[in-house]
Amino acid sequence: xxxxxxxxxxxxxxxxxxxxxxxxxxxxxxxxxxxxxxxxxxxxxxxxxxxxxxxxxxxxxxxxxxxxxxxxxxxxxxxxxxxxxxxxxxxxxxxxxxxxxxxxxxxxxxxxxxxxxxxxxxxxxxxxxxxxxxxxxxxxxxxxxxxxxxxxxxxxxxxxxxxxxxxxxxxxxxxxxxxxxxxxxxxxxxxxxxxxxxxxxxxxxxxxxxxxxxxxxxxxxxxxxxxxxxxxxxxxxxxxxxxxxxxxxxxxxxxxxxxxxxxxxxxxxxxxxxxxxxxxxxxxxxxxxxxxxxxxxxxxxxxxxxxxxxxxxxxxxxxxxxxxxxxxxxxxxxxxxxxxxxxxxxxxxxxxxxxxxxxxxxxxxxxxxxxxxxxxxxxxxxxxxxxxxxxxxxxxxxxxxxxxxxxxxxxxxxxxxxxxxxxxxxxxxxxxxxxxxxxxxxxxxxxxxxxxxxxxxxxxxxxxxxxxxxxxxxxxxxxxxxxxxxxxxxxxxxxxxx
RNA sequence: GGUCCUGUGGCCGAGUGGCUAGGCUGAGCUCUGCAAAAGCUCCUACUGCGGUUCGAAUCCGCACGGGACCUCCA
Length: 498
Description:
Layout: E1 6-9, E2 14-17, E3 25-30, H1 41-59, E4 63-68, H2 86-94, H3 98-115, H4 131-143, E5 147-150, E6 153-156, H5 158-164, H6 175-180, E7 197-202, E8 218-220, H7 222-234, E9 238-244, H8 248-263, E10 268-274, E11 277-279, E12 282-283, H9 294-299, H10 311-319, E13 327-329, H11 331-353, H12 365-383, H13 388-406, H14 417-434, H15 447-464, H16 468-480, E14 483-488, E15 491-496
Parallel strand pairs: 3-4, 3-9, 9-10, 11-13
Antiparallel strand pairs: 1-2, 5-6, 6-7, 7-8, 11-12, 14-15
Helix pairs in contact: 2-3, 4-7, 4-8, 7-8, 10-11, 11-13, 11-14, 12-13, 12-14, 13-14, 15-16
The protein binds one RNA strand through helix 1, helix 6, strand 9, helix 8 and strand 12.
């Protein structure tokens, strides 16, 4: 394990040295998507950022249990603890069963995550699969005196909780300030406190997704699922909890309160929050309607896009920025990243072909030191709160040398074999294993067809100049690849060898 | 209104109390049949005004600009 990992803890608003609860093991929970519609690029950024974090923890040799949930129930529209569940609303719209919606968008989400080359979490629990755990937790919170039931709905008593624990700790806010930002309770409200939130919501007759509970038929509130599932799989106190910054004030604040009220302990040691993706300076969000779907981005089929950008170019684009900074989306920025990504990958391919051959030449002491230094800077970058931007900058610095070696501008033998190996493994591991970038050979869908066309043109040209040696060569090589080149009356074409 | 964050070169983006990240773009050079790639060089910034300091873009204050959260959202 290299040096020490530091990470920015939202709870303390400082960069802290990372010390896992159990040496060598890390438990991490990340709030996953609500699968009632397609994930947009902003959602993807969070998951890609945590993929980087997960990958680096693995790289450091930790045994990591990475839990990322799927929210497939109980997520209300609006803040009044009434009205339909998002899934039901969408289901009515699409004339589908709620679980059909869940299935459709869960699969879609997984496809997108795969395109972005993210590693799968260790456990991907669903809210609907953990209803009883949530009910048990709510029961415990009630019996501990932090929640009350009214007409089949259970509310968390924030003001009472706040007398013992700092409710607004995660966003550094006092209860009075929070209260100031909320509306007066109207006569329709049944909850007692303005900040109280629902743990369990009573079902209406038309509610489709409902479960029986001690408080009657209903469904769980949004926040309780994460508390229930994180404690189930990671314990009452675990190492890292992550999510987008937009979840900090409400969802995560409530999660802490629930877990504390239930388990009498603070649930998480390190809270990590990723920043937002913006479009023209404004946050990308579902409600703002400025979200890009990954598919639109890949194909370029969107009014704001000049062209399509490949998944790896987009991943690289995100990696060039630190996860806690906002990232502004523009064609110009994306184009720049696309080029940068290709340079890195070309370098990667080049590097893999480089073979060290010691020569009698004198080694360059300073060069060895410099290369070693650049390698160390990559580790230092990641250890400093997963600063992938620093890593990439230093990879480019290394790339300059890699290209110089490859072009024999600098003789490779001026490096010691140890330094060469270090450069090689550092570059390859950082690009592939940590940043999660891979060579996209054929992200251009028609590339192979186009290459056939080129081949056939060469073939035709060779026939015209009666270069039969070349003609035979092309045909033989194509045949070896399982492709038959045919001269027909209509012209030259090819088919698969039968 | 409340609570915060932020303002870096043509663009995107790191970072730090003094040792000028990096990428993209543009210009030039080397190499080169042409081209590409690659290497080298140049364009060298930190919103404005004060203050602290031997020294600040980096710390503090004020002003202005941008944004987030406080309501569903990664």
